Inverse folding.
């Protein structure tokens, strides 16, 4: 086969390149640009250039020479030879990967129409209707043509289909019947050859409106790929505000959605149909695909444990943050960081020196005021938490993130606030640590300011008492937030510092896989962190919730035993009966 440029004079440029997938796989040599084509039977491998490797990825039995040549031009520009694919085919023949005998048009595989078209007999007629799976395009063919089109599945050559037609319709089929049918498909724009502008389309290329139905599996136009510094990809949907962490191989497959048929993707990337189905389900449930929305969470029956932790979104702060962020960007500069560190260090020294006085003052306030301190202390704690959340929000906004909502958080019957900083997952690990730690730094700054203000005010004034309560409120909320066993800032700080997203879930999954004998799909460094975190988290849950349950049960059975038992019985009947009949 001699290399021929792709031009209108080349009669074979629309013929389909063979499918190498069943017998060969493509691999990249580590530390090199060389691509290796390896036999699946383990009896040979052959080196190719990166450009040739890119072209070989499209040898799936569904793309024409012109199409692969066009894709190579799009990928590598003018450095691609006009005869690259022809030369590559010749090279495959020389290596013995393809048959060495001179091939003719009869040896070429006919394209796969099944992802986009269906064949339907016309009632009371011997004609066949070719219908687009999506859209309104309909084309009528004769019975012989319809019989031949049934074999356009990307598996049969022109010769195979020609032979079957001659056997089925003995004596009524011309010697070039399939070649004429292919030309007819091209004329009807069901197949398309190379256009003068270099753009091409086929049943497996990206369809154009009105010619073929568009693959329904396609990412929304708003969805963005973010190359994360930690070595993976983030798929970000800024409209529905969902995120997915993807590997390099997942990204390559997802990028083909809407361009290639599911069958072509499965064959080209050597994945199972179930693997592609699972990937599509993940994209659907996170509303990444066109025409999908976030599923409504199933509404289960009420559980009293839900009162311990739930969120109420209140408003979208992003427009307000955008208006004010430019005026305070100096906060995230190195000079300010040095000044803040020195101030906090000086405050820590002062606090340690005055620790006995601070404790004694607290005892005096409790003895003098008792429970009346609860209300001002709670109000000041809420003020501290509000500034804490603004610290998260403004820091994320400074790094270019989006804060879609803020709201009320009820945590163990205590009201607090929360900020949705999910967009921080798109940032580097260091910036994520800063976003999470910003709230804690704000609390330390409030504590330091209250400490100095407490020292400067008159001990008999209400400002002295208020500044003391503010100082204590800042320290107490810091202590609660730093707990990494609950999903507070301490937990998200641990996630950011280790780079292990979904730390709690993965730690329990590690032990689950270990007990079931399944492979541990974690790196050696992550395994130790996950192995330590799971038992500590279980111990925390046991002691905290066990303590709460014991105290509530003791009070209920002592003070209102009959009422408690009645309420418990009603709830058990409600929760377990009647069963959902869906």
């Amino acid at each position: 086969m001699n290399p021929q440029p792709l031009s209108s004079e080349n009669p074979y440029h629309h013929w389909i390149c063979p499918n190498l997938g069943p017998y060969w796989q493509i691999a990249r040599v580590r530390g090199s640009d060389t691509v290796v084509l390896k036999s699946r039977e383990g009896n040979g491998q052959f080196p190719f250039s990166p450009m040739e490797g890119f072209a070989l990825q499209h040898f799936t039995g569904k793309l024409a020479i012109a199409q692969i040549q066009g894709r190579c031009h799009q990928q590598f520009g003018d450095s691609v030879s006009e005869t690259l694919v022809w030369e590559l085919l010749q090279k495959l023949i020389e290596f013995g990967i393809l048959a060495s005998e001179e091939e003719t048009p009869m040896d070429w595989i006919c394209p796969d129409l099944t992802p986009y078209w269906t064949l339907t007999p016309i009632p009371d007629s011997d004609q066949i209707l070719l219908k687009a799976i999506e859209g309104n395009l309909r084309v009528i063919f004769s019975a012989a043509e319809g019989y031949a089109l049934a074999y356009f599945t990307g598996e049969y050559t022109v010769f195979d289909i020609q032979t079957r037609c001659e056997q089925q319709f003995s004596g009524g089929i011309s010697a070039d019947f399939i070649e004429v049918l292919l030309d007819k498909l091209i004329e009807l724009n069901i197949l398309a050859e190379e256009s003068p502008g270099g753009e091409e389309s086929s049943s497996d290329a990206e369809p154009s409106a009105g010619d073929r139905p568009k693959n329904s599996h396609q990412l929304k136009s708003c969805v963005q790929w973010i190359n994360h510094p930690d070595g993976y990809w983030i798929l970000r949907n800024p409209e529905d505000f969902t995120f997915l962490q993807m590997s390099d191989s997942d990204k390559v497959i997802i990028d083909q959605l809407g361009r290639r048929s599911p069958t072509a993707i499965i064959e080209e990337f050597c994945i199972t149909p179930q693997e592609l189905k699972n990937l599509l389900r993940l994209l659907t449930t996170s509303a990444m695909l066109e025409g999908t929305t976030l599923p409504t969470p199933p509404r289960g029956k009420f559980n009293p444990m839900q009162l311990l932790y739930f969120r109420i979104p209140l408003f979208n702060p992003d427009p307000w943050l955008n208006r004010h962020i430019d005026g305070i960007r100096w906060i995230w500069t190195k000079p300010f960081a040095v000044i803040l560190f020195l101030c906090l260090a000086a405050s820590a020294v002062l606090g340690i020196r005055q620790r006995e006085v601070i404790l004694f003052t607290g005892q005096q306030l409790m003895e003098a005021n008792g429970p009346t301190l609860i209300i001002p202390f709670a109000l000041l704690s809420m003020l501290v938490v509000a500034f804490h959340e603004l610290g998260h929000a403004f820091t994320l906004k400074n790094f270019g993130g989006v804060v879609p909502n803020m709201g009320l958080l009820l945590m163990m019957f205590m009201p607090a606030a929360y900020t949705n900083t999910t967009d921080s997952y798109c940032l580097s690990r260091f910036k994520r640590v800063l976003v999470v730690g910003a709230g804690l730094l704000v609390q330390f700054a409030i504590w330091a300011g209250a400490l100095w203000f407490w020292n400067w005010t008159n001990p008999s004034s209400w400002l002295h008492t208020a500044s003391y309560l503010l100082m204590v409120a800042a320290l107490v909320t810091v202590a609660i937030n730093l707990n990494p066993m609950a999903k507070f800032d301490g937990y998200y700080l641990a996630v950011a510092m280790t780079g292990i997203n979904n730390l709690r879930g993965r730690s329990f999954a590690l032990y689950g896989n270990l007990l079931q004998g399944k492979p541990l799909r974690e790196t050696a460094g992550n395994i130790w962190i996950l192995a330590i975190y799971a038992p500590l988290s279980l111990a925390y849950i046991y002691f905290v919730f066990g303590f709460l349950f014991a105290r509530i049960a003791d009070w209920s059975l002592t003070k209102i035993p009959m009422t408690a038992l009645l309420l418990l019985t009603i709830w058990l009947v409600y929760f377990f009966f009647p069963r959902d009949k869906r």
Observations:
- The radius of gyration is 34 Å.
- Residues 524-559 form the longest helix (36 residues).
- The longest strand covers residues 309-315.
- Residues 402 and 423 are 6 Å apart (CA to CA).
